[in-house]
Automatic annotation (TrEMBL):
Source species, domain of life: Eukaryota
Protein name: PISTILLATA
UniProt KW Coiled coil keyword: yes
InterPro entries, alphabetized: TF_Kbox (IPR002487)
Coiled coil, from the record: 3-30
One Pfam family linked to the record: K-box
Swiss-Prot/TrEMBL keywords: Coiled coil
Annotated ranges, domain K-box: 3-89
GO cellular component: nucleus
GO molecular function, one term: DNA-binding transcription factor activity
Gene name linked to the record: PI
Protein's organism: Blitum bonus-henricus
Length: 122
């Protein structure tokens, strides 16, 4: 009885696998000539749902990139402002008399140091 149950389970899994292969072919546009009209409608709906999901994901990624671009532009504007301010202070002689402040202006903040590209690690 135990072997019979295992054989039945294997047969069921083989049939399920075969059905999934056929469905995948249909989703790829292969072997659809044998499908009846209701099956074609279901296939079209499945493909439309897939397209909608892909479009939603694309929009999500686009908005994320747009947000990142805006944040980087704002950071760049702040850095340009700080640089301009420091250059003006140096031109005005504001740091000539204070070596500690002058040295501070030339230090690169930790967050802006070049870091190893993690994708290039072996």
């Amino acid at each position: 009885a135990k072997h019979e149950n295992l054989k039945n389970e294997i047969d069921r899994i083989k049939k399920e696998n075969n059905d999934m292969r056929i469905e995948l072919k249909h989703l790829n546009g292969e072997d659809i000539s044998s499908l009846q009209y209701p099956d074609l409608i279901r296939l079209e709906q499945a493909l439309d749902n897939g397209i909608a999901s892909v479009n939603d994901r694309q929009m999500e990624i686009y908005k994320m990139h747009e947000k990142n671009t805006t944040m980087l532009q704002e950071e760049n504007n702040q850095l340009e402002y700080m640089l301009h301010k420091q250059e003006n202070e140096m031109m005005d002689g504001g740091v000539r008399n204070n070596p500690q402040e002058r040295d501070y202006l030339y230090q690169i903040p930790y967050g802006f140091r070049a870091q190893q590209n993690q994708q290039e690690r072996v």
